[in-house]
Specification:
Strand content: 5-15%
Strand order of the largest sheet: 3-2-5-6
Distance between the termini: 92 Å
Radius of gyration: 26 Å
Helix content: 40-55%
Number of strands: 6
Structural class: alpha+beta
Shape: globular
Number of helices: 20
Low-confidence stretches: 57-79
């Protein structure tokens, strides 16, 4: 066997330590940012951090803190349990040693909804990660094996199927029922029994097993009620237009100071120079965080003025890819920037992600209605019904059609579930009890 030595030149993108730190700062909440900067200030003599009154818990020795306190503010600011995103990233690090596949897996993780379901189609993730669809689907198949079972599902049926398979209870009959959940919602048990080659009692027994599964496994990672904190942004009416501004009162302030006198000590001078350089970089990274967040919020408000003027029924379809394309940034950057951010509006303080909404008809772009707008429409129709004679799903379909929107009955049932609205039978029974 002949051995040869050759050179080859390739191009690649490497994440430096500073790039990783900048991305970490970008997705921090005001509380997390205060804690992070407070820790940095403890070790950096050139950095002073002032924490707002709303976030008074800071380590002793940092500007704005109380002297002599034994309270561990860093521990108080930190979350007591990992988020769904953090939980998934830990598993990705173990399951995907290949950096290219890990990047695709992280793109899927960023598309996760709080329920644990996947909020974007594999085609969208594949395009964002710049890989073939076959590669994205292979990565998704591996992600769907993560714990807890049911994560990364593309819908209710797939979520339940993944859990049933994980528990070793996925029979052919159960698979048929999961493929026809719309028949369960419509109460067509006898017809479903015929499809399963069984009896209605067999179907009811299978449904009992299904009810033991968790339709929203991601909610297990939801933290306890968070403290009420000031919003990150505000949107106000100015001269007939909507203006967005950062809520600086909720953000920590950074001050760069001169290093202490070092004399002729070369090691001390080197340490002081590095400390000042680190402090300056932190100040720039934090300001970039603020500017990216503000730019994303301005774009969202400009695209969703009808929502601010008239309410949720006027939300237009809008994705992170749309905002990223307008700002010349990557979709993952926008996702990190708006995650867990709150904005104060005349309609109340809402998550910045409330301005995003998927199109009801895929591929319709901004021309068609958004899912959130139609969910709000269903809620409005039910809110105006006669409590003594609640509307059936078929009647809601008719009223929605009269308003110019075509919905299937099973879609109305799904949207009712999202809004927490019981069936017409249960609503009528409740009305009779309260009469």
């Amino acid at each position: 066997m002949e051995m040869t030595v050759s050179q080859r030149q390739t191009q690649g993108l490497a994440m430096t330590a500073k790039m990783q730190a900048a991305l970490k700062i970008l997705q921090m909440t005001a509380v997390d940012l205060s804690a992070y900067l407070a820790e940095e200030a403890l070790e950096n003599p050139c950095l002073e951090v002032s924490v707002p009154q709303a976030l008074r818990a800071v380590p002793t020795g940092v500007a704005g803190s109380g002297a002599g306190s034994d309270f561990d503010a860093i521990a108080a600011l930190a979350s007591d349990k990992p988020s769904l995103y953090e939980h998934v990233l830990r598993q990705i690090a173990l399951a995907f040693p290949n950096p290219r596949l890990a990047r695709v897996a992280e793109a899927f993780a960023e598309a996760l909804e709080p329920t644990g379901w996947l909020g974007a189609a594999p085609e969208t993730v594949a395009a964002a990660a710049r890989v073939p669809l076959s590669v994205a689907e292979a990565v998704l198949a591996r992600l769907q094996q993560f714990e807890p079972a049911g994560l990364f599902a593309r819908g209710l049926a797939e979520c339940l199927r993944l859990q049933a398979e994980d528990r070793g209870m996925l029979t052919w009959e159960l698979s048929v029922i999961l493929d026809n959940l719309d028949m369960v919602a419509a109460g067509r048990i006898d017809a479903l029994a015929d499809l399963c080659d069984g009896t209605p009692q067999d179907v009811r027994n299978a449904l009992r097993s299904i009810r033991g599964l968790d339709p929203k496994p991601g909610l297990a990672f939801a933290a306890t009620e968070p403290p009420i904190l000031p919003p990150d942004l505000r949107v106000i009416r100015k001269d007939g237009t909507w203006a967005v501004e950062l809520n600086r009162s909720s953000l920590p302030a950074i001050k760069i100071t001169e290093p202490p006198e070092t004399g002729r000590d070369a090691a001390a001078r080197t340490f002081a120079a590095r400390a000042r350089s680190r402090a300056q970089w932190l100040a720039r990274a934090v300001e970039r965080r603020h500017s990216t967040l503000l730019a994303a919020a301005v774009c969202l408000v400009r695209r969703q003025t009808d929502y601010l003027d008239s309410g949720p029924r006027h939300l237009r379809p809008l994705s992170t890819e749309d905002v990223a394309g307008e700002l010349g940034l990557h979709a993952s950057t926008i996702s990190r920037a708006v995650q867990h951010r709150m904005i104060e509006t005349p309609r109340g303080t809402v998550p910045l992600r409330a301005f995003f909404s998927r199109a009801f008809t895929p591929g319709s772009g901004e021309d068609g209605p958004s899912q959130d707008a139609l969910i709000a429409l269903v809620g409005d129709i039910v809110a105006k019904e006669n409590p003594a004679r609640p509307l059936s799903d078929a009647a809601i379909v008719t009223q929605a059609k009269a308003a110019g929107f075509t919905l299937a009955r099973r879609t109305v049932a799904k949207y009712r579930d999202v809004l927490g609205i019981p069936s017409s039978y249960d609503r009528r029974h409740t009305a009779r009890l309260s009469a």
